[in-house]
Every structure is written in structure tokens, then in C-alpha cells.
Amino acid sequence: MAIVEYGPPLSLADAKRVLEAAEAEAIANQWAMVIAVLDSTGHLLALHRMDHTQYASIVVAQAKAQTALNFKRPTKVFEDGLAGGALRWLGMPDLCPLEGGIPLIRNGKIAGAIGVSGAQSSQDAQVAAAGGMVLEA
Q1: Which of 51, 82, 69 has its CA nearest to residue 109?
Q2: How many helices (H) and strands (E) does the chain have?
Q3: Which of 40, 80, 83, 99 could form a Cys-Cys staple with 9, CB 3.0–4.6 A?
Q4: Could you confirm whether domain 12-136 is CATH 1.20.58.630?
């Protein structure tokens, strides 16, 4: 596996574009979501709770983004591993093994992360991916 470095942090303008693209995907599918965007230093840049989204998703979205950033990989890796019996991951601090968090890559480096919560994990991931595409374009 190639080493991916942390890069310069996202700006607020970047975070808003990521959030808007993710929100557009959620709206198109009529999903109520919470979308959290972190910069590469792990600090929250944007948090958006759509109307009628469950309150628990506020914390879960942030945990997904933090996990994706800290471990430099999508949270789906952990969800799949846990489903496959990797129970050791339950002992890791600050790990959210739920799909819906991805690192945000710009110029081959991690510029931040997005975490989404509110629907099924695969739907959360779809919305996160829509936000992530903004920086890759």
C-alpha cells in the first residue's frame, strides 16, 4: 500500500464546496443527513444538519470523518473488516467502523475528510463520495 501524506489543510471555501456537493446528492435522493468536513489537521471546518435528521448523526458524522482522517482510509474498510470477524478493531480508540467517512484528496495528499450520517451506511458513503469528488476534479 502506497503511503499517502497529509497535505495542506482545506480552506473554508473548499469545505463549503465539498459540503454543497454532498448536500446536493442527499437532496437528490431525499435523504436527511448530517455532513461533517474536517481539515487535514483534524479540525472541524463545516457541519451541516439537514432538516429532520436524527440528532445522533451529528456525533456519528464527525466520528466517521475523524476515523477516515486518522487512519488515512475510508471507514468502509473497518466496517467490512468487522463484518469479517476483525473484532480486534473494537479495541482501537476513536475508531468508527461504519461506512460513510472518506479522506479528501487533493494533489495526491490528504487535505481533510468528510463524514456523513443519517441513512444506511452505503447511502452515507454515496453522499460522502459526491462531496469528495469536488477536490479530485
Answers
A1: 69
A2: 4, 4
A3: 40
A4: no
